[in-house]
Design brief:
Layout lengths: L1 E2 L5 H12 L7 E2 L14 E4 L6 H8 L10 E4 L9 H10 L6 H5 L1
Parallel strand pairs: 1-2, 3-4
């Protein structure tokens, strides 16, 4: 199931409802889903690309660990994202997360 900006709001709502109720175990989404969605118990978020700002990154990964739940976020981060490396490291440090040594080398 997927959500993106070219879908109507009605289609996006239907897809999201299917995901929320476990009828679709995987949701693929563009940034249209990075804010304003209330979905309980998301186990994993995978960011295929790093967003333009750390604030957007926080909103994306915020789909995991709602309330007392836990989750894991994976983000593909490449040398093309070099401009955001210091922001990402700051976010990870603030959240007391392990920082991959390769990230520190960028």
């Amino acid at each position: 199931m997927g959500i993106h900006g070219d879908k109507s709001q009605q289609e996006r709502d239907w897809v999201l409802n299917e995901f929320k109720h476990g009828k679709a175990p995987i949701l693929i989404a563009t940034d249209v889903a990075s804010r304003g969605l209330d979905v309980e118990d998301v186990k994993f978020v995978i960011n295929y690309d790093y967003p333009n700002s750390s604030e957007d990154y926080i909103h994306r990964i915020g789909r995991t660990a709602r309330s007392t739940k836990t989750g894991t976020a994976y983000t593909f981060f490449t040398p093309n994202n070099i401009k955001q490396v210091s922001d990402l490291i700051s976010v990870l440090r603030e959240a007391n997360q392990a920082i991959n040594p390769k990230l520190l080398q960028l």
